[in-house]
Amino acid sequence: MANMPEVTVGPPDDLGWRKVTINHKSAGKVRSPGELRTLLQDAGLEPGHPVQWLGGDSLVWPDRTVQRITVGSLMFFGFLLTACLLIRIGWADCRNALTFGGRLAGYSVLAAALVEIVAALAALDYWHKRKRSYSGAAVLAGVVIAFLGSSSLLLLQIGEHFTRWSVIGIFFLAGSILAGVGLIRSRAWKGLRYPGRIAIGAIIPTLLASINLAYSQIYVPHATAPLVMSGAEFKEASLDSTGKVLRVTVHAYVKNDGHVPVYILGSIYWVHGGPATDISDLRDPPYTLIYDGEFVRPAGRELNPGEEVAQDAVVEIKDPDKVDYEVIKAQTEAYVVRRDRMTLATEYEQSRATIETLKKEGKWRPEEPENAKYRNESGISDSSEILNIIRGPQSISVWRVPSGDRSRIDVAISPPGDKIVFDSKNPRFNQRNLDRYGFSLVRGSMDQTPFKMLVEKARSAEEGSSPDQSGQ
User: Is residue 172 part of a domain?
Assistant: First the structure.
């Protein structure tokens, strides 16, 4: 009896395992009487060998197999689904994000997806045999990422439309909270030797790096306003051979003097004739429209920092001696959106169609301006994949609309179930929504020239160009 091995069965842990020692040496873990008999037989002990019970007798076997397998399976598939979503977002952003910060964020999301995959594999061990000491900590890390991702998704959807992604976010948020509570109660990190030091060593450097990255690569570029300049000026003037048509060259331009690239959605310039007024006078005396046109083509082209687009157009004024213009003036307008906040589809340039054509093809909508000359339209995408998921399909429409002596450009950006319309008379209307795309109206400087001076200059040029027969 003195050499009889001493067998001890310890108290059950939170997973139902009871540790078995033989002569104070670990022999394994068991969850049921059958597993205990098998372990003792493998150790060469006879059935009925005396056993010392700690934390409960031979009737205490708290393992709930169905519950354990169910919870483990739910967490395994939940981690895999979270990883798939993160891979979709991260892969799209690391390739197509419009800013450096966005692409770096994409790689970070891919790294989080890798953690979710590790957590899914760790869940199989944690809810089965717990052979690896880090499996609980890995599962907890996966739950934290799922919580942060789902809560971020829901926070970004505040003010947006309720979509299927809202339902997915709510589902994962509730699941991560329930799983987190259970893991914290069971102290899932207790398998690690120094969990506090590991947490501090990982959280503090990550937090500092994230703050620096957010400021330098996200906040600063986002807060930088585009600086786009535009204007028009009169160049040379000439008369035709009959002297009854005055031709005036108008130079219209737009230049990006800032650090933010933009798309030019549409442009327009006007040439008016009328009474002489102070160019800074805000009052609008009656002017006659001589000509209007587009000076940036194709519509939707990019304008990078330091780049300029200009066009010279010849405007004809018939019978210059009979019109009563004191001055003629030229002015430009351009509508731009930031290229670092949205991507304009390439189809925008080729989408121009007249309203008559749209009506014939059944593509015209009743809410569109019926007297429009033409329309450009295409889909747009946001600066990151997470915003595309939240906001859903979006499109932009631009119309050229004749309107008396000052034709205009109408712009509408349409998220699902809504329409953001830009009102040039009230540019701050719906400003919060317009800022999300970096949309702005660039009103160019005005050039105002005495009409008689242009006529005299044209006649002088014509007389000076006439050949002197006596001198030949």
Answer: yes
